[in-house]
Amino acid sequence: MNGKAIALVGAAALGLLAFACTETTVLPPDQEAPGISVSGSGSVFGEPDVAVLSLGVQAQAESVGEARSQAAGRMDAMLKALKDGGVADDDIQTARFSVQPVYDYIEGRTVLRGFSVDNIVTAKIRTIDDTGELIDAALAAGGDLSRVDNLQFTIDNPDALEDQAREKAMADAKRKAETLAEAAGVSLGPPRSISEGGGPVPIPFSGEEYAALAKDEARTPIELGELEVRVDVQVVYQLEGE
Q1: Nearest to 131 by CA among 105, 104, 103, 150
Q2: What fold does the segment set 33-46+156-201+226-242 form as a domain?
Q3: What CATH number was assigned to the domain covering residues 50-154?
Q4: Does the reported pTM lie above 0.85?
């Protein structure tokens, strides 16, 4: 390749590099224009209609096979109790299954004591008023190997409530933007960008109710309350006359 060809190739490479840099570094005009950025929030409340329950068994024995067998027997009994109580097969799924060694530390030495098997499922309870009775039945079936990881109440289809919360969030954002624009002596234009986050805020099961589960004679108390559906928005308004 002669010197002229090398020069042409070099010029072409520099031209491509310049084009690439221009394409990736130049911002669109609307992103460079000044504006007012505000956040807004809106909340509405509704009654939960679904309980999401995470529960299962934890078994420990000298061998994996023995621990697994104990866990499987109690887990089958718990699942039967849930299904007999009206929970559909499609609303039950395994959330976690684990097998782990259990060690003792004796005089500075690690000694294998046995194995622990955990089997946790998540069940969606649609007949929400039956939640307490279903928990009691499942725990009775699981016996001493039972464990409850979590219980939350939520709304199965929150779309209508979320739309109401969006309207409130946008109204809140616009009010803030108008106040800022008036204070600054400028005119507020339409929104240039909108982003949102949020949704139903689940109601957790309280510590007092967990404590009641440990008492064989106690009937599990369930207080549903109201569920908050919250939407947060971030809005950038352009200014009139830009």
Answers
A1: 150
A2: Translation Initiation Factor IF3 (3.30.110)
A3: 3.30.70.2970
A4: no
Phi, psi of 160 (to 5 degrees): -65, -40
What DSSP line would sit under 133-194, residue for residue?
A: HHHHHHHHHHGGGEEEEEEEEE-S--HHHHHHHHHHHHHHHHHHHHHHHHHHT--EEEEEEE
Listed in sequence order, the DSSP H helices in the chain are 3-25, 29-32, 64-84, 131-142, 159-184, 207-213
Amino acid 5 reads A
Question: One digit per residue, pLDDT tens: the chain, 242 residues?
Answer: 544 443 333 333 434 333 333 232 233 454 556 799 999 999 999 989 999 999 999 999 999 999 999 999 999 999 999 999 999 999 999 999 999 999 998 888 899 999 999 999 999 999 998 998 999 999 999 999 999 998 888 888 889 999 999 999 999 999 999 999 999 999 999 999 999 987 776 666 544 454 454 444 555 555 567 888 899 999 999 998 65
Is residue 156 within 8 A of residue 202, CB to CB? The reply is no
Place of tokens 């079936």: 141
